[in-house]
């Protein structure tokens, strides 16, 4: 395992990013979800095997690795089984670009290990397990039996440009506006050994949207979707997130069928049942839905019931797509400069020039709770308004003339914007 020489400078950029206060997609997983994933992926039952190699590509403050350490300690206490320090050292590789996260993860993990090992043994193990490095820029000479974790959900706008370029040059699935976790999926899947298993908890957006199509095609050609757990409405993370999470378990083994759980109550009994079904020890439980038609090249993954899927097929057959009839679909407020065009109620503007804005945060609870945000409105029923009739609007926009004229849309216009 090493950094390619040409990537060393980029890795330093990554560590600088990791040390900054900028958005890095740090959302930590709740303990019951961690335990469920370790069990259903087979990690829990594989800790005694000398061939087990576990990868955690973005470990944060160590939730998954700490739980692995607890499982090892429990095995030692319950069975008096002997694990050599060298064997334990070889079990795990965990990465993060934040030195602070790595330090916290090491401390918490060593505290667990010191319940049954000496201080020196625990120290040497955590020093072997944790790496302060950019996983996506690290070259590996080994493969892993298990990859598990919670890859960072970072929008491309928040990735430093030099790193975004480096990631895209390495990972062909990171197309269009693909967020950072897409690259984590590709690399981790490539690092699976022949019978390896990957289990990630992440947003479900990529399973259906356009930028996930390359990853879906990549998976269709080489991997099997063993388990999909829809966690819609659940508190899967230690902080609130504005996305729908799901557990996705993939492998190189071709089982042909996918087991699906919709919004289940996560507990140890369920994880035992799911593991038994996935390993063929039990027939498919009535808690699980079994499907054989989820993956089809780059097509969206549809997990609904039969009636919902039949309706979608009928609509696709009988009607053209929105794009085919000339519609364009956009996400978010395409202002070109949200800092100027999205304001609070205290902005000094004519009342007609402020339109109430509803964001995802305002409706997170299912009830509209306005946050007091407004969009600056430069239009009326006749098109763009004349600023001479709106002196407050004119004065407001004029102070931002320079930045507004740098907008992409402004470069296409020959007359002044304000």
Average of the residue pLDDT scores: 85
The proportion of residues in beta strands is 15-25%
Please compute the radius of gyration using only Cα atoms: 25 Å
For the largest beta-sheet, the strand count, sense and barrel status come to: 9 strands, mixed
CATH class of the largest domain: Alpha Beta
- The helicity comes to 25-40%
CATH topology of the largest domain: Rossmann fold
- Structural class, by secondary structure, is alpha/beta
CATH superfamily of the largest domain: Vaccinia Virus protein VP39
Helices, by number, come to 15
**Into how many domains do the coordinates divide?**
2
Task: Describe, in plain words, how this protein is organized in 3D.
This protein folds into two domains: 2-311, 3-Layer(aba) Sandwich (Rossmann fold), CATH 3.40.50; 338-412, no CATH class. A hairpin with a 2-residue loop joins strand 15 and strand 16. The chain is globular, with a radius of gyration of 25 Å. Helix content is 35%, strand content 17%. The chain is of the alpha/beta class. The strands form four sheets. A nine-stranded mixed beta sheet has the order 4-3-2-6-7-9-8-10-11, sandwiched between helices. It holds the Pfam family Eco57I. InterPro entries: DNA_methylase_N6_adenine_CS, MethylTrfase_TaqI-like_dom, N4_N6_ade-DNA_methylase, SAM-dependent_MTases_sf. Residues 97-237 form the Type II methyltransferase M.TaqI-like domain. It catalyses: a 2'-deoxyadenosine in DNA + S-adenosyl-L-methionine = an N(6)-methyl-2'-deoxyadenosine in DNA + S-adenosyl-L-homocysteine + H(+).
């Amino acid at each position: 395992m090493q950094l390619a020489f040409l990537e060393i400078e980029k890795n330093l950029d990554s560590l600088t990013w990791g040390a900054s206060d900028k958005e890095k997609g740090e959302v930590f997983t709740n303990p019951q979800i961690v335990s469920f994933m370790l069990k259903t992926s087979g990690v829990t039952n594989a800790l005694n095997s000398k061939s087990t190699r576990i990868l955690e590509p973005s470990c944060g403050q160590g939730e998954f690795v700490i739980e692995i350490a607890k499982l090892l300690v429990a095995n030692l206490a319950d069975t008096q089984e002997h694990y050599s320090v060298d064997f334990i050292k070889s079990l795990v590789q965990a990465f993060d670009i934040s030195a602070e996260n790595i330090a916290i993860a090491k401390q918490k993990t060593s505290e667990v290990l010191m319940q049954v090992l000496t201080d020196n043994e625990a120290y040497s193990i955590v020093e072997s397990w944790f790496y302060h490095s950019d996983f996506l820029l690290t070259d590996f000479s080994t493969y892993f039996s298990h990859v598990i974790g919670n890859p960072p959900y970072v929008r491309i706008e928040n990735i430093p440009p030099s790193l975004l370029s480096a990631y895209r040059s390495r990972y062909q699935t990171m197309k269009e506006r693909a967020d950072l976790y897409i690259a984590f999926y590709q690399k981790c899947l490539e690092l699976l050994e022949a019978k390896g298993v990957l289990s990630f908890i992440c947003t479900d957006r990529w399973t259906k949207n356009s930028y996930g199509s390359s990853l879906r095609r990549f998976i269709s050609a080489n991997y099997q979707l063993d388990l999909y757990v829809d966690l819609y409405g659940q508190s899967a993370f230690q902080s609130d997130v504005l996305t729908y999470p799901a557990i996705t378990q993939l492998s190189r083994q071709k089982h042909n069928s996918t087991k699906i759980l919709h919004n289940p109550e996560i507990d140890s009994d369920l994880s035992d049942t799911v593991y038994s079904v996935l390993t063929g020890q039990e027939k498919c439980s009535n808690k699980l839905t079994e499907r054989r038609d989820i993956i089809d090249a780059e097509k969206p993954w549809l997990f609904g019931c039969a009636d919902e899927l039949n309706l979608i097929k009928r609509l696709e057959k009988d009607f053209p797509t929105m794009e085919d009839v000339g519609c364009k679909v956009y996400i978010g407020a395409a202002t070109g400069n949200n800092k100027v065009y999205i304001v609070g109620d205290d902005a000094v503007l004519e009342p007609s020039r402020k339109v109430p804005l509803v964001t995802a945060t305002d409706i997170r609870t299912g009830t509209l709770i306005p946050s007091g945000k407004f969009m600056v409105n430069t239009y009326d029923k006749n098109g763009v308004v004349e600023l001479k009739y709106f002196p407050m609007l004119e004065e407001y926009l004029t102070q931002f003339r320079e930045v507004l004229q740098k907008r992409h849309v402004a470069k296409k216009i020959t007359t002044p914007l304000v």
